[in-house]
Amino acid sequence: MQTLPPLHFYNSKTRQKERFTPITPGFVGLYLCGPTVYGDAHLGHARSAIVFDVLVRYLRLRGDKVRYVRNVTDVGHLVADADAGEDKIGKMARLEQLEPMEVAQRYTNTYRRDMAALGCEPPSIEPLASGHIPEQIAMVEQILKEGLAYESEGSVYFDVRAYQARYGDYGQISGRVVDELLAATRDLAGQEEKRHPADFALWKKADPTHIMRWPSPWSVGFPGWHIECSAMSAKYLGTEFDIHGGGMDLLFPHHEAEQAQSHACHHHSPVRTWMHVNMVQVNGQKMGKSLGNAINLRQFFTGDHPLLEQAYSPMTIRFFMLQAHYRSTVDFSNDALQAARKGLRRLVNGLGALDRLYAMRPQFGPEDVDAGLETQISAEVATIHQALCDDLNTAQAVAGLYALLKRIQTLAGKPEGLVRVSDAGLDLLATSYRTFFLDVLGLKVEPNDLTPLQDGLLAQYKTAKETKEWATVDALRGLFKAAGLLIQDGKHGSFVAYDEN
Ligand SMILES: [Zn+2]
Question: How far is the CA of 284 from the centre of ligand 1 (A)?
């Protein structure tokens, strides 16, 4: 493989693009905040999972070994920002009359199912918060020992002012002005246990009606939301690791709190590069239940929502998201998804066209090879690598893939040109196109229930052509056309492709 350009990522903490080199050369530790499992997965979950799936795939293509940890929050995520709230999963369990773990299991299952449909490979480790209570308690004990937390009425709170006085980096990741946070005179009503409104819970004493609870040195209770990610990332990736990812909505308070807890515990900052994925909009608006536009992934896959004109396949959703850079917002609309579907089909047709190039190739000799063509193909491939190395710019990588597609189409349309491409040039074109499409962007040709039927009809079509039964030929063409497919006749036989018009 050619030498690849160095990687650069935008680090939320320093607010600039930085050269990325793993702490241990050849090994990358990556932690991504996973879902809180109290409801069906939505576009925001999908976007984070897809972006980091592509990052992991690309790092692995470059030869790095990646340990990809993505947690499942099955306890401790409070309903409100305020620490006085109720556990989201506990609340859902009460509403649905289920065991809390039944709720968590159900939505963990649907989350995994939907991410698999979107072509996201499972993480290397998928730790559950509820399975790491001792680790979280140990961390809270350590922070107490450091004098950066305090116990109050059976709960434990992180002391933001004391932390800030010692380390001074609270607010760095989110860009929040800490003086303002600390000067906040927000009412402490209902949270009188706290010394300051900016303090957050490390451990909460459970009231008698609370259904998820564990014993601890302070009370029977449950961990705060932020502490799980500090505890589980340190356990599986070490106290300093390469990349921490998540949605932009997690910048504050979640990631700010996470970094402060880990720093307080281990005396150094836990993460080299913080990467945040921007938000998803629907028809130009933020998604929200009150706006009636909170469409979950299943509804996209089935088309079962009043705002959707049709079903959109998982690969259409994935491809649509990858057409945007991860730090830009993406706006979902029927028009945009239909355009993405069409664009994806053009790329799929490119895969079929490539196969045919190889079938045609033996008929052309190597006598007229034009070395310039191979150089051009090589430059086009390099452009795609450059895009991915430049802060994972999948938007530009997709544009680069279309440039390769154009070359494939030119060769398929005028196969005489194959004489002029060297074997190495054609192999580079074919391998790169397939690798970027399938292995890096993680797209796939979606199985179609009609495929066996299609093959049978195509065989009939070929027979009818040979026997010159033109009425049958026309009828079969019409059938394919109605299904959005075209039969194309070439010197080397007939084949089916998506209708690109
Ligand atoms: Zn997290």
Answer: 27
pTM above 0.90, yes or no: yes
pLDDT in tens, 136-148: 999 999 999 999 9
Residues 457 and 389 in one domain: no
Average pLDDT over residues 231-256: 97
pLDDT at 376 over 70: yes
What is the 247 CA–ligand 1 centroid distance (Å)? 10
Residue 434 lies in a domain: yes
Cα of 304 vs centre of ligand 1, distance in Å, is: 31
CA 254 to chain centre: 19
Q: Is 496 helix (H, G, I), strand (E, B) or coil?
A: strand
Q: How far apart are CA 111 and CA 48, in angstroms?
A: 13
Q: How far is CA 257 from CA 29, 111, 230, 254, 469, in A?
A: 20, 26, 9, 5, 74
Distance 28 CA to ligand 1 centre (A): 18
Question: What is the residue range of 473's domain?
Answer: 451-498
How high is the mean pLDDT of the chain? 90
132 & 262 share domain: yes
Res. 228: pLDDT tops 80 = yes
Give the H or E element holding residue 307: none
How many angstroms does the Cα of residue 463 sit away from the middle of ligand 1? 60
